[in-house]
Amino acid sequence: MGVVEFEDVFVKYETYTGSVLALRGITFSLGEGETILVVGPSGSGKTTLLRVILGLVQPMHGTVRVFGMEPRDGKTGLEIRRRIGYLTQEGKMIPELTVWENIIFYAKGRGRKVDENRVRELARELNVEAVLNKHPNQLSGGELKRAELLMVLSDEPELLLLDEPTSMLDAENSKVVIDLLSTFKGSVPMIVTSHDPRLVEVSNRILEVTGGVVRKPEGTAPLSLKD
Ligand code: ADP
Ligand code: ADP
């Protein structure tokens, strides 16, 4: 049994102007210790796919299992979300708290513990040790992105969902992030969405999504990372 299993998943959004089929028959499974890189143009359904795993969006058709559970009712969704580290594109730090306070607050809200030494070690590896006592709005875009990643990793999640982890980062800091994610490869299962071809390094498989459909069956086909 995979950590994440999708079977013929369809997602429809209703909007003022009509409905959008964001996912159209997605089937895949993520095994223990595996990393899947999800690529595809903007609007192809990558973020939606992550939100379905988190139970934030309900499919109109198909089956989803995460840790063997269906993220359907509120309680299961919560249980699933507290075991997942989700890096969003927009970030989720609270401006009134420092980075360090955010990390503690985040873990507490999830009913999880933080190992201070481990967080300091991760902060060093991500090159954000110097900003732990600053507020999010005092950081550069790149520092904030790495601080957000630190927060998401800080309570040792069982599954990582990372939405564009290297966007906003220059080449040097992208490398910092990719090197760190490489150390998680094989131990923590991950789904990473990205346009960054360097992330291929940390992935076992590539899922190419176009218009809500997996365009090529996983993995072996040559990569297309056009936006
Ligand atoms: P990204 O593409 O960076 O992952 P989002 O997931 O926020 O960004 O949005 C992707 C696309 O979905 C964008 O084109 C955005 O305009 C559209 N979108 C997001 N939220 C809504 C919404 N509530 N209603 C209509 N369209 C939306
Ligand atoms: P990606 O992450 O690949 O950019 P998304 O999953 O954000 O793609 O979006 C997939 C499709 O669903 C797009 O057509 C987008 O406009 C639409 N969409 C995304 N979020 C919403 C939303 N909250 N309401 C309505 N439409 C949305």
Automatic annotation (TrEMBL):
Residues 4-227 form the ABC transporter domain. GO terms for molecular function: ATP binding; ATP hydrolysis activity; transmembrane transporter activity. One of its GO terms (cellular component) is plasma membrane. The keyword Ribonucleoprotein does not apply. SUPFAM superfamilies: P-loop containing nucleoside triphosphate hydrolases. Keywords: ATP-binding, Nucleotide-binding. Pfam families: ABC_tran (PF00005). It comes from the Archaea. Gene3D superfamilies: P-loop containing nucleotide triphosphate hydrolases. The keyword Oxidoreductase does not apply. This is ATP-binding cassette domain-containing protein.
